[in-house]
Amino acid sequence: MNTRLAKSDWQSRRAAHEARVDPWIQPRLARQSRHERHAVEDFLFEYYPYRPAQLRRWHPGAGVVLEGAEEFLNLSGYCHAPGGVAAGAVPEKRRPFLEWLAGMLESTAARPAFFACHGLHEWAMVYRCPRVRHEKLPLRLGPQETDAVVESLPIRCSHYDAFRFFTPDSRELNRLQPVRDEPREQPGCLHANMDLYKWSFKLSPWCPSEWIADAFELARRIRELDMRASPYDLSSLGFSPVRIETPEGRREYEEHQTAFAAEARPIRHRLLALCRELIAGISCSPQSEADFPAHPCGTPECSTSIEKSRNGLPSPSGRT
User: What are the Cα distances from residue 62, in Å, to 2, 179, 251?
Assistant: First the structure.
């Protein structure tokens, strides 16, 4: 069953989405115009290939027909549908990615969460390195003391895209040796949960923009903890440190990490449900009423979250 939105309804949802993301986007654009860079706030715009204009653009998601929405036909992925305009079926060529992503999300969710990495990946990136990644930010403890922290605590980084930035001397200190082609993500990892933003926008336009905004908002807060727990002094940016070199700081880090993992769980499950739905609906034939798939996931929580978002009701994070 497809959801059909009247023009006034989808315009209201689009306006709400734009109002939500503008406070994240406008400061970024203002800094760009001044040739300034913020080590915390700009990270998501620089690390992930999704421009501010793309984040601001609203998409209703798969299986939603928009009345009076011919303007969407100018966007990739949209076509005429009975009663209006909708995102078309996913091309067959996207099947391998969707199957890979579904498998990765499912395996990540199934693994036990680990909450004792304490953000040492950022420390490993400056270990015995005369040139740090954020040159405008001083180290809180100085080079020698920073190296001593790396040497005194166990490093257990499971995320390849963090591990690949380790210095040569710190790579061998990692008790895990992740590789790109064999991801071993676990649901407690800050970066795995931050990457839910990447996976959500890679499913656009079939992923509702409200979901992408949910993932972006979580990733913003994760990035803040990531940097507060790093070896850098962020006092000039108004951030207090999470001193993971102390037992108290490590406990604080684990508390935040545990809370973020709980927030990430429903986001991961609904993206998994969407991947399964899109795989089931892949077709190379012209769009028809039957080409808008139902919800084959079989997981009540996932199917419910999809239906709620399509009808403008709150998603699991409390936002539409």
Answer: 9, 33, 41
Instruction: Please check the confidence at residue 318 and state whether its pLDDT lies above 50.
Output: no
CB count within 10 Å of CB 168 equals 9
By three-state DSSP, how is residue 223 classified? helix
Q: What's this model's pTM, rounded to 2 decimal places?
A: 0.86
Which position has the token pair 């545990």?
A: 258
Q: Answer for the pair 213, 319: CB distance below 8 angstroms, yes or no.
A: yes
Q: How many domains does the chain have?
A: 1
Query: Where in the sequence is the domain holding 231, given as residue range(s)?
Result: 3-310
Query: pLDDT tens-digit profile of 247-289?
Result: 999 999 999 999 999 999 999 999 999 999 999 988 543 444 3
Question: Which amino acid, one-letter code, is at 248?
Answer: E
Which tens digits make up the pLDDT trace of 285-307? Answer: 344 433 333 333 333 333 333 44
Residues 26 and 225: their CA atoms lie apart, in Å, by 22
Q: Note whether residue 270 is domain-resident.
A: yes
Residue 127 within any structural domain of the chain: yes
What are the structure tokens assigned to 177, written together? 């040796």
Q: Is residue 172 part of a domain?
A: yes
